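Form P-L/3: holo structure prediction, ligand guanosine-5'-diphosphate.
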Amino acid sequence: MKTYATSQLIDGLRSGDKRLLAKAITLVESKKAEHRDQAEDLLKAIMPFTGNSIRIGITGVPGAGKSTFIENFGKFAIANGKKVAVLAVDPSSSLNKGSILGDKTRMEELAREKNAFIRPSPTSGFLGGIANATFESLLLCEAAGYDYILIETVGVGQSEVLVSDITDVFLFLKIIGGGDELQGIKRGVMEMVDLIFINKVEEENRLKAKNTKIELLRALHFMPSKEKDWKVPVFLGSALNNEGLDAVYEKVQEFIDLKVATSSFEETRKRQAEKRFDYWVKEYILQHTKSGKEGETQYDLHKKNASDLKVNPSSEAKVFVEKLLKK
Ligand code: GDP
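OUTPUT (holo model):
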């Protein structure tokens, strides 16, 4: 990786240079210690320019129409004078078998827009790490002046939790049929959503879609409400034909306005920041204990003890940490 001075990255991304924004993102995604140090400097410097976007999480099974939706929704936002960035949290990419979201050519038209920036999903690291790196990428996009940050993920449960930890509003894209289980409508995901969009609704299935909507509203009725004074709306539409996206756009704004008015907007972001703080405390403790020759040797030794299945991993971790934190 070619190195860039921190000031060069800052000036570049602040002046709208997408190539340098991409370089800055590569830097925050890196797990190398020296890159991390520079990433911290960079993030510190851009902090005053962050926080001003609407952060939208979007989920749905593969084929639900997420990229089609994002492409047309993004173009709609751009037509309204906004800048749009698209990031992804892809659980498959952390499992070392190629990614569900990243492999195909996606959102070509949106990618060509001057006011759009699309980042393929990170290809390494574990899911928690990917979500945290994605959050930092989001901050970089905000500093680069993007008004909407769309974060896409695929419906497998855990990734939704992580995405809802870095976004302000969570949108679920559903298609008719396919079965609730298959569509990830597990209680957990339903409790996280703020808006539902039933996609691919065209003339021949409109009636079915209306019934699905009634079922969904009924199910939602029994869920604890995530946001006070907010009933999760269910929209019908077609991402492909650009139908219903304007309604979602308006509703997102309404939702954000409500959250700001009730202070829940800031509160949620604060809770999210606390979670990230805890994540990084653990991460840095791990890095610290493993650093240096002695640390590495001890780490390998205790990890080996745990993997021999004769000792309890938590006891072994405790011994290791206590031994090394004294160093
Ligand atoms: P993703 O895997 O969730 O990102 O889904 P895609 O956006 O790649 O869409 C999967 C397929 O569904 C593609 O062939 C799209 O053209 C198609 N598709 C997406 N939205 C609609 C829609 O509103 N109506 C119809 N008929 N097809 C759609």
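COMMENT: The CA atoms of residues 38 and 44 lie 10 Å apart.
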